[in-house]
Design brief:
22 strands; about 15% helix
Amino acid sequence: MRRVFNNVVSVLYTMIRMFLLKMFRGGDLQVALVERFSPNVVFEMNKGAKVTLEKGVRVHSGTKIKVRKNAKLFMGADSKINYNCIIACHDSVSIGAGTEFGPSVYVYDHDHDYRAGLKENKFLSAHVEIGKNCWIGANTVILRGTKLGDNCVVGAGCVIKGEYPAGSVIVQKRQTEVFFSEK
């Protein structure tokens, strides 16, 4: 019963929150009537940012979604973002319908341009596209310029960049090293 109550509160909270954002952002924010954002989600849209959330998007507690000036974020119908994820968008991020993130998944469409110096606060950015019906395992980091085809599975703990065809199963080789110290 408590879970049903929490879900109803989350949906009502999201409807009010998105209505208020829509009043201030107008056409820059496109949302379906029913979304579910936990009250503990940080959602920021800078001036000129464009966000589209299709029907049934769910975002859990601790997640931070930051869409910077002139950036674009698209989240397809029934996409689900688990606890403590980060989507940081300086260029554009697209998440396909039915895609699910495990906990603590980070998506960055930009890197600091370290050649300019970190104090310059300059970034290199490239579109991130995640296809439909993908599963992104816990603690995965998705970097700028990544393109995942539909129905991909990304194993927990991966750091990925590049293009992966539809139906790919992506895991990273893990090595176990044992260190002994002699005393």
